[in-house]
Records
---
Amino acid sequence: MCGMTVVLGTDPASIVRAAACLRQGGLVAFPTETVYGLGVHAMDVTAVHRLFAAKGRPAHDPLIVHVSNLDQAAVLTTGMPPVASALANAFWPGPLTMVLPRHGAVPREVTAGLETVAVRVPAHPVARALLEAAGIPIAAPSANLFSRPSPTTAAHVLEDLRGRIDMVIDGGPTSVGVESTVLDLTSTPPRVLRPGGVSVERLRALLPHLEIFGASVASGEAARSPGLLSQHYSPRTPMALYSGTPDATRLAIVRRIHQATADGLTVGLLATREQIAALGPLSVPVVDLGSEQDADAVARRLYAAIRELDAANLDLILAQQVAHTQGLWQAVADRLTRAATERVAIPDP
Ligand code: AMP
Ligand code: MG
């Protein structure tokens, strides 16, 4: 079926066409408010296998099942804890994924053999229209090649998956820009497995005992939530991430630029507007993540910025870790950490 990837608009006829393709087992990328998803009929095991192959995704990495509402989510699980409906009221539709006990009707291929299933009701109008038109649960991981930065535009999807999927619906850039928060409701107390579009602070209002799964998990033990693989979302170019006090990291980055340039390497820098201003003029390509005053804007731009520097075909990307840890900054810091191939912690002077 694949070979040519059709690019569709968001008009009603395109939605109907994409929905029909999904019902027949096709692979359709579509915008959600977080990142572009690569959708497939969640109950069609053959189609699910094709999806894993198209992404080059390992079979141990489970998929999130997207549904239209709480009632459809309930069909996929054997037990909805009372707090799930409170969470759904507060955060659905939106960037919260709940991990619940798997119903036998959900293929094991979707959940990577786990006895739990991850479900979410997306907020993006195109995603909602597609779910309505298809009338099926849609399993959808991010529409990128495995381990690459997630796609926030249709162009990113095509960069990775052109010729490997049937269709992509171009709905423009996504508004949140980082993936959903994955919340495990099958553990006591509930745990955040992956920080994302709904902040931990907002979840704590409903779940005061909420735990956060260890931020840096060795690749092997991450089966519970492969979004937590320590190496993920990465550019092809090696990326060194500097963290520490702003003054100390700046000094270290300037030194590294000089050293790498002297070694004949081409280097680029990824940092916030404030960090770039403090560094002063540099002789290397610089990509601005946005302002430290605006976590939403930085999250929205993060993956495009990483892809932009990657496209420059440099030998090395240097990045400065964001200074804040609250709200959406937690997801941004998490993705930068996982995108990095080298992590440099500069000790306090
Ligand atoms: P992606 O949409 O590509 O970001 O991938 C979906 C992510 O959701 C996975 O990598 C996991 O982190 C998480 N996930 C999906 N299903 C489960 C599950 N049953 N238990 C825990 N985490 C899950
Ligand atoms: Mg992904």
Note: The radius of gyration is 20 Å.
---
Amino acid sequence: MSTKMKVCKFGGTSMANAETIAKVAEIIKTDKSRKFVVVSAPGKRRPSDTKVTDLLYACADSKDFDEALSKVKERFDDIIKESKIKLKLDYTMTKKDTREYLASRGEYLAGKVMAQILGYEFIDAAEIIKFDSKGNFLAEVTHNLCKKRFAKVKTGAVIPGFYGSDDKGDIKTFSRGGSDVTGAIIARAIDAEVYENWTDVDGFLKCDPRIVDSPKLIDMLTYKELRELSYMGANVLHPEAIFPVRASDISINIRNTFNPKHEGTMIVPTKFFERGDYKRETATITGIAGKKDFVAINVEKSMMNNEVGFARRLLQVLEDDGVSVEHMPTGIDTICVVIDRAQFAKSSIQKVVDDVKKVCKPDRVTVVEDIALIAVVGHGMTARKGTAADVCGALADADVNIRMIDQGSSELNIIVAVDNKDFETALKALYGKLG
Ligand code: ASP
């Protein structure tokens, strides 16, 4: 196969039943370059339903293995019957199988079904996606195996997402939602024209729809912007899925299986955007995302600016206590470290404060708990004056106190910290002004 191809990954709702799988097949058939297909296990058919992966985890955890397994069989038997295909699936699973092996069977069986419907070959992910014995993904070994195997593909191939195997052949899985990662790995291996990630929404929204009424859709964003937005909670895509494709300058296109005419959201390498390959409809701000429950530790010491190594000592304390830092705004005699509350699992806030006092000998340490961070993100800020003024103005008008404000010199984002209780009000006000 010489011309550039697309990798299409279909998520759980796209694979939920025979009807949705028929839509998937239709999408693949309408574009000849859709030759590499990655599938998730069947997801929920309705809100109260259970995903096949959860049924499989229940097999591993439940006392009545056979009863749990029968629910999995029922899902696939229905799909096969209603799709009117002739396929005998191998449901060999036993109580002795590992949790990861059992969990992987949803994607394995869904891949078999999809390959039969499309007339594509089935490639077991265990052959090509490799992990070490501790479950760490082996990127380069996998890349080489994939390239070798894909060179033999004639018509097209279906690869189950979510899992691979270690050197003993034991099945290992990525974290939940990991089929997105498999899709990205396959896209890199075939040097895809684009990695299409088909899901059940039209794309990324500019703001959280649970807080802001009908936010606009983002037509295009860069990898850098996505990083700023995704770690703050916009999770349409597994965060680790961007690395294999970003490194190879492959764009990701988020698409909706249930609205295939919509062009979705395009996630593009930052340099393509910077050199003007993409024009966007969205203006200064690409998106606004936030997260509650951060802790700010303020460390004060006079003449801190003259003390060689102060910041290093402070960061060393945090490293020794196993805590990672989100942001670090500084003043002449102060450094503030903003930390996700979830980081204090190993060492408590009090222990970290005590260690800072012991090692850094500051004049004063104060702690502010229950703060929320909001990132206002967009390359468009570079060319425009007054974005920071708009941010501050919108929050002042909404009577929200800004606890901290931070803008990197890249002018890609402005981060504001507000009290947890003001989070929703702040997000609404910022979207109202800049969205
Ligand atoms: N089926 C797995 C899960 O539910 C992986 C995936 O769908 O991406 O997490």
Note: The CA atoms of residues 131 and 137 lie 4 Å apart.
